[in-house]
Amino acid sequence: MAVLATGWLTPGSASVPAGARPAGQAAKPELTSFRVAPAGATEQLALSWSYGTAPVTRLHLDLYSIAAGNAVRLGSTIVGNTVEPRSYSIPVPPGTWAVRATPENASGFGVGITSAAVTVRNSCASAGLCVTVTNPSRRVAIRLAGQGFLNGTSSWTTSRISSALTPLAPKQLRAAGSAAHARAAQVHASSTQVLSDLWNNATARFGYAQTPWSDWNRWKSFVASTVATAERQGWAPNYWDVWNEPNGTCCPRFSPVDLATASVDKWLETYVVAWQAIKSVDPRAQVIGPSLSALQWAPGSPSEFDLDTFLAYSAAHHVVWSAISWHENTNAPSPGDIASSVTNVDRHVAMARAVMARHPGTVTGNRIFVNEYDPASTHLLAGWAVGYFHAFEADGVSQANLACWDAGDCTTDLDGLLTPTGQPTAVWWAHRAYAQLAGQPQMTVGTNAAWQLDGLATRDDAHHTLRVLLGRHYSCNEPVNPWCTYDAHIAPTSVSMSIAWPYGSAPVTVTTNRLPAGDGALRAPVVIGTTRVRPVNGRLSVRVASVADGDALSIVARPA
């Protein structure tokens, strides 16, 4: 953290960051307005700005906490000027904040503007966090978009699949090989085959795979023969995924000598050659890409190419993808993010859709797959799982697959949902509660701080039953989570819920369960309580006295 004198933060001050080029060389970028205000009753800052006539390539944003006369910089990010809107949201807890914006172009930095101090308050009068569940104007069913898995079912028996996987109603499995396809068929899930994994199996020596560009003919022949073999043997997938994380450093990885030969053009050609080879065998095959390790929507990524470059190249070569794909599995903020948060998914999806709009016809139906999600540090926390469920459902992601992080996760432990001895964890129960929402009309879940608490809710009119699934996802809760490397000291807090009840005024039985943060076995959800509640003005009031960071809550309401 940088502690700066408050003079630096004088609103509208005309200071320029060190290292800026002297004025007069060329037209410097200019901000003609910069506004920061609380975002309604939510714990967020709403930023908006406008530029002058000079070109602007990017905007530097710095977030400061203001307390006791000091300004402490807590976060920074860079917002580009390609498809990005001239607005931004920053999630913050209650407190006093200021944001500094500094434009930049090829000539250097322009004059920075610092907002006035803005106070964000907790709008929840009855608890630390408030939840409101209402009936939407338009009914949309839960799709289970986040109910996908990777490699965590290797060597499973039929009985184990029936007991541990089938109850989760999985929608998609992503792996490599005929056995993986058979498991997907057994649970009626779609399957994705990762060609780069199969290429790694065929070419890796001493842990390093061959680069496709070292022998284009071999790469093309391998892809075509793999697709033909899968068709002939009956394990052709719903989707072919060309390459996993195109950086050459992991999964597959290249030798240092081969890695030095990589370039954006070679990576792009890798995808086009594979797409053409697949289509030469099966013109109806569905092919996805680029499965980036993190979404970068405009040029500037330090390790991988960006989505705009990928789709422009695809359009030039008449390639149409069945979906675009990337991973949401790092706790390091992606370019354009000011902090690690589940709600970053919302921005990423919006940026991806804006890029697809620049290249119409390159992605069928503008479908989006997030084919790995949840960082290592939070993947064993039920509250984070629920946060991702909410994001994928709300943002229209077609399908998403949970990531795996160690040998157990990736072979036998269902991406961490089971303990090494095969017992369910709280995250397994979160996925089970999610599955129980499938196909039911969604209700709208609103909170005063969606960046740390949100969820899903459904109504079952046939049985007069409401289900609410909430997750808290502030940080990674180091005291109960061995994957977390820092303790953010996030205290448990109370949660107050107001839930629309559309089934009359008779008493209602409300059962509230906790799926506690932690990685241990959980035989069943922890019952917080079962209470008899009478609706007041068509609403049920439910309160939970203490919800820890990483906890999930499952609430079921039905006639008493």
Draw up the topology in text.
Elements: E1 2-4, E2 31-38, E3 44-51, E4 58-67, E5 70-80, E6 87-91, E7 95-105, E8 108-109, E9 113-114, E10 118-120, E11 129-134, E12 148-149, H1 158-165, E13 172-175, H2 178-186, E14 190-194, H3 195-203, H4 216-233, E15 239-241, H5 256-259, H6 264-281, E16 287-292, H7 307-316, E17 323-328, H8 344-358, E18 368-373, H9 382-395, E19 399-402, H10 407-411, H11 426-435, E20 442-447, E21 453-460, E22 465-472, E23 493-500, E24 508-515, E25 526-533, E26 539-547, E27 552-559
Helix pairs in contact: 4-6, 8-9, 9-11
Question: How would you describe this protein?
Answer:
With 560 residues, the chain is of the alpha/beta class. The protein is 21% helix and 30% strand. The protein has helices at residues 158-165, 178-186, 195-203, 216-233, 256-259, 264-281, 307-316, 344-358, 382-395, 407-411, 426-435, and strands at residues 2-4, 31-38, 44-51, 58-67, 70-80, 87-91, 95-105, 108-109, 113-114, 118-120, 129-134, 148-149, 172-175, 190-194, 239-241, 287-292, 323-328, 368-373, 399-402, 442-447, 453-460, 465-472, 493-500, 508-515, 526-533, 539-547, 552-559. Strands 25-24-27-22-21-20-11-23-26 form a 9-stranded mixed beta sheet. The chain is globular. It starts with a strand and ends with a strand.
